[in-house]
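Researcher: Next entry in the queue.
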Amino acid sequence: MKATTFELVRRSNMYRKSKKNGKGTTYDLREVVTNIKWTTDLNFSAGELSFDLIQNAHPIIPYTGDIIKFRWDHKKIFYGYVFKYEVKEDNTVSVTCYDKERYLKNQDSIVWQSGTIADRFNNVCKRAGIKHKVVNKPKHKVAAEVCDGKTYFDMLKSAITKTKTATKHMYYVYCNYDTVELRRAPYKKLKIIIGSKSAMTGFSYTVDINNTANVVKVIQKDTKKAKSKSATAKQDDPKRTSFKSTSAKGKSTEQWGKLQVTVNKKNKANHAQMVKQAKNELRKRNRANKTLTIDCIGNVDLVAGNAVTIKINDINKTLKNCPILKAEHNFGTDYTCHLTMKAGAEWLEN
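Model: Structure for this entry, 350 residues:
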């Protein structure tokens, strides 16, 4: 890809590489960079690095497409490209960069044959022109599918969701410096413990049932054919429309009341298959959503896709191998992390 290299480093290195005007020039930004923030997110988003350059007159400006390399304590953290910069009147330059996952937002139209997530992953990464690697290869094959005008992220999400439903194994995409990788979660179960008496500086624990359902009704709509073409209407005719249904109910109705949703039956499903569909949907929906956010001392291993044990004395909870869904790292004199974690059974939200 195009470029100019900037390297960022404080205790770190940050470098910029630029080929503006046909010249490949490298700039060391370590003396002028501040407010460095690095974010990783499992929700099919590219890794993001933002920072400010504090300079005197004639500031060095990282142009769009320039490469930014960032190291912290001699460890490679981020390799990506400038997508936005803003020059302010005091000569401060605010920069936003994304790693190579950003190119999975490209749109395309592809007819997929039956295959694994890895098959799709390799295909779309080649189309996007990005360096990639399958770290954990799934065996499950998903059915053939037509994806018309969708992003590569959406195409991968479709296969990942179907594989998770079939195998209970969660796969995700992560950019490991300059290589986009397909991994199985949790990639690392970190041995460290973040607790009230150790690295934790703050927390928020939320439980809600706003999107919960403890009654699932599977609906079959029957429509009688009109006797004449003139009687055919775009809207359903009450005289010719009826519904059949079957439902599954959870015991939580005693505590939460009746929280009902309806879903259409699968194509050509018989009654027994409708009952099974209702039970399967209930199993997925009949649980409270639990979210945990943690503020803690920074650690470069606290990234989306890894898991860490959390111990909170205030609410008497120890959550072993708690999944990190999103991690925001703020580098500076005080290196801190803000983590969004899934405290329940499921890795990803819908």
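Model: Residues 10 and 279 are 55 Å apart (CA to CA).
Researcher: Noted, moving on.
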